[in-house]
Amino acid sequence: MIKDLKSDFSYAKMEKQMAPRSLLSLSVVSVLMNLFFIQAMRAYIPGVYVAIFHVVFGENIVPNMLVLLTLLFFFVPGLTVVICKKIQKQKLMMASIYVVAIVRLLVAFNLPSLWHVICCGLIISFYGFYLSTFLSLWFKEEGGHRVEPAHKFVVLLTTFTVAFLADYLIRTIGFSEDVSLVAPGLIADWQVTQYFWLIFQIPLSASCIYLAFKYFPRFNRPEIKEAETSETQTPLKSYYLLIFTGMGVFLFLQFSLFLYPNAIAQYTSTNYYLNNILSIIAVMIVACAVVFFKFGFLKNIVLQGVLNAFLILSLILFLFFGKITSVLASILFTFSLVVIYLDFYLLLVLTTRIRFKWVDVKSISNAITLAFLFYILFLVLHVFTTDWAYTIEALQGKGPLILLLGGILLSACSLGSIFIMNKEKSGGIER
Question: What are 25-38's pLDDT values in tens digits?
Answer without folding.
Answer: 889 999 999 999 98
